[in-house]
Design goal:
Keywords: Oxidoreductase. This protein is an alpha+beta fold. The protein is 24% helix and 25% strand. It has helices at residues 11-22, 55-69, 71-75, 100-110, 119-125, 167-180, 225-232, 312-325, 374-389; strands at 3-7, 26-30, 47-48, 85-87, 90-93, 115-117, 155-158, 162-164, 184-186, 191-197, 200-206, 211-213, 216-219, 242-253, 267-270, 275-279, 284-289, 298-299, 337-345, 351-354, 360-364, 400-402, 409-411. The relative contact order is 0.20.
Length: 431
């Protein structure tokens, strides 16, 4: 009965396992995949940015960046090859949906360095960029897509933003560190049921016929998290729901001159056109979408039914939008990219919390914008579990977390399952 079971061996689950094991708890991680980080984690663009619409979101991302920057120190042990954090900076282009004034004040409060660029500076810092204002985003088969821009836009540049070079390796690093502290992993193993007694989870039933007696369970199952909540019978008091969403990220070749030799170039968040771009040191360019209203979203009832291959329609839309912004970008004739299934909360903010079933905790709704915060998510859940299991009423008196590097206090009630759906957010992956 002393085992803490983490369901999900992605970057979030591995981080939670590390922090629980590091605190001296007996941890078992269960995942139906064949390897660590094989789910949503493997299809992440792994962008590390700070542009969120809430103070908790900005403070979490800023604190987490320091853990990526000091990755070996965060892991605390030898894990072999370690993932690389590439500090390349990010330019958040101006957009009516998320005006700079809304998040710059949060940068000031939290201490995130930034520069405010006008259109001339934007053109000077990112070669070949079109600084035209095209809002709102339009489908590429809409004749208005090619209209002349109406005015120009600038950007807010955060020099400390960047990306993690290999998201799957990041999860594996965390898992190796967790194993160093005694955590065990059972892969190719699915959860088929939960045992409860007197309103508390007491066991996890697995598809091999075994049952693991436990004292707590953490749902970090990504797009399968809703199904696991169903097995646990939790969710009646949730004000925020989660749903699986199929997503595609396109690969293209960055235009000549976009980045200096050996550099990935500055990442671009372009909600004005409905896309984001980040380069790679080898001259590649990852291009994803920001869920503009003109695009249908591919919601799924069952994440296992997701079509696994990149489609021409989504690829053409994303890369053509990027080429509208980066005028020298060529649009390839054949789609190339990765497909993943995200675990999306109603307001695109994660739920890190307890539930109405004692001992059953959740780290869900994390896909799309929480990879960057994974090192901290483990610490959040470890703090919540420790406090709640010691008798704290986290609903009425939320746990407060103080950042090791930034000394910022983060109210973990901001990630409550029972929070009000935030107003004033972008309603997209940007948060």
């Amino acid at each position: 009965m002393n085992v803490d079971v983490v369901v999900g061996a992605g970057v979030i689950g591995a981080s939670i396992a590390l922090e629980l094991a590091r605190s001296g708890r007996e941890v078992l991680v269960v995942d139906k995949a064949s390897g660590v980080g094989h789910g949503s984690t493997s299809s992440s663009s792994a962008v590390v940015r700070f542009n969120f619409s809430t103070r908790a979101g900005v403070a979490t991302a800023w604190e987490a960046q320091h853990r990526w920057q000091h990755w070996g120190e965060h892991l605390g042990c030898d894990v072999g090859e370690t993932v690389r954090f590439e500090r390349c900076g990010l330019a958040m282009l101006d957009v009516e949906l998320a005006p700079r004034a809304g998040y710059v004040r949060l940068f000031d409060d939290v201490g995130v360095p930034y520069e405010e660029w006008d259109s001339a500076t934007l053109r000077g810092r990112i070669p070949g960029i079109d600084a035209g204002r095209h809002w709102p985003p339009k489908r590429i088969d809409d004749e208005r897509f090619w209209d002349e821009p109406r005015g120009e836009l600038g950007a807010v540049y955060t020099p400390d933003a960047g990306y993690v070079g290999d998201p799957q390796l990041a999860a594996q690093n965390l898992a190796t560190a967790a194993a160093h502290h005694g955590a065990q992993f059972r892969l190719r193993t699915a959860v088929v049921g939960l045992d409860t007694e007197s309103g508390r989870v007491t066991g996890v039933r697995l598809d091999d016929g075994s049952t693991v007696p436990c004292r707590t369970v953490v749902n970090a199952a990504g797009p399968w998290s809703g199904a696991l909540n169903g097995l646990a019978g939790v969710g009646s008091d949730f004000t925020i729901g989660v749903r699986p969403l199929r997503q595609e990220v396109a690969y293209a070749t960055a235009p000549a001159g976009f980045a200096p030799a050996g550099s990935p170039g500055i990442s671009i968040a372009d909600m004005d056109l409905g896309t984001y771009m980040r380069g790679e040191a080898g001259g590649g360019l990852l291009i994803g979408g920001t869920e503009p209203e003109c695009d249908p979203l591919d919601w799924l009832d069952d994440p296992d039914e997701a079509h696994p291959h990149a489609t021409a329609a989504v690829f053409d839309a994303q890369v053509t939008r990027a080429a509208r912004r980066l005028t020298e970008l060529a649009v390839p004739s054949r789609p190339r990219g990765v497909v993943g299934v995200y675990d999306v909360a109603d307001d695109w903010a994660p739920i890190y919390d307890r539930t109405e079933l004692d001992g059953f905790y959740v780290a869900i709704g994390t896909s799309g914008n929480q990879f960057k915060n994974a090192p901290l998510a483990g610490e959040f859940l470890a703090a919540i579990i420790e406090q709640v299991e010691s008798g704290r009423n986290h609903d009425a008196d939320p746990v407060q977390f103080r950042g090791q590097y930034t000394s910022q206090t983060i109210d973990l009630g901001a990630f409550s399952r029972r929070r009000k759906v935030a107003t004033g957010t972008s309603g997209t992956v940007m948060g």
